[in-house]
Amino acid sequence: MLDWENSQYAFQIAAAILAAISNSLLIYLITHFSPKDIGDYKHLMLFISMFEVVYAMLDLVVQPNLSMFVVVFYGVKCWNKMRSILTTTSSHLENIQNQLFYALVAQTIIPIFLMHLPALTMFMFSFLELDAGHLSGLVSFSIALFPALDPIPTILIISSYRDAIKKFVNKKCLKFRKTKIGKLLVKRKTKVESSHSAMG
């Protein structure tokens, strides 16, 4: 049976790998599929994605409280930079800004639930001199998930990124259907559907 510390560390490694994959995907989408009118915000999103990969690796090496300090420090820097970037108002740019705003709101909610509330809960346990037991380990799990899940709202909310993912998946599905296994699965699915329609 695995002990608690080894489970936490294994989870942190898995979350760091997932963070590297999801943020690399977002970096690829930003560099290849960003709307032309997105302007300097493109660079800010690239910076945030690269930071989250570094943060995930940092979370493996240092304690979560130090990595939370780093997040707050760079979060304030990003917020100040973003205030200076978002100043245009054409309808196309307004649509892009709305998508970016919703992505930002989602990316604000994720750390609240995965970092701040769990950490606050543990601080309250300490303040009230209560033993949190293994619950304290859940903070490490939730903090490790943060950089892995944070790019997902941006990928799903920004239409050009979402469309690029759909196009990629559709292309891979069509390619798979042309293979022997794909043809066999389509043929088997057609047989099952025709037998169900004959019974009903």
Automatic annotation (TrEMBL):
Keywords: Membrane, Transmembrane, Transmembrane helix
Transmembrane segments: 9-33, 53-76, 100-125, 137-158
Molecular function terms from GO: G protein-coupled olfactory receptor activity
GO term, biological process aspect, one: olfactory behavior
InterPro entries: 7TM_GPCR_serpentine_rcpt_Srj, 7TM_GPCR_serpentine_rcpt_Str
Matches recorded under SUPFAM superfamilies: Family A G protein-coupled receptor-like
GO CC annotations, alphabetized: plasma membrane
PANTHER family: 7-TRANSMEMBRANE DOMAIN RECEPTOR C.ELEGANS (PTHR22943), SEVEN TM RECEPTOR (PTHR22943:SF20)
Protein name: G-protein coupled receptors family 1 profile domain-containing protein
Source species: Caenorhabditis nigoni
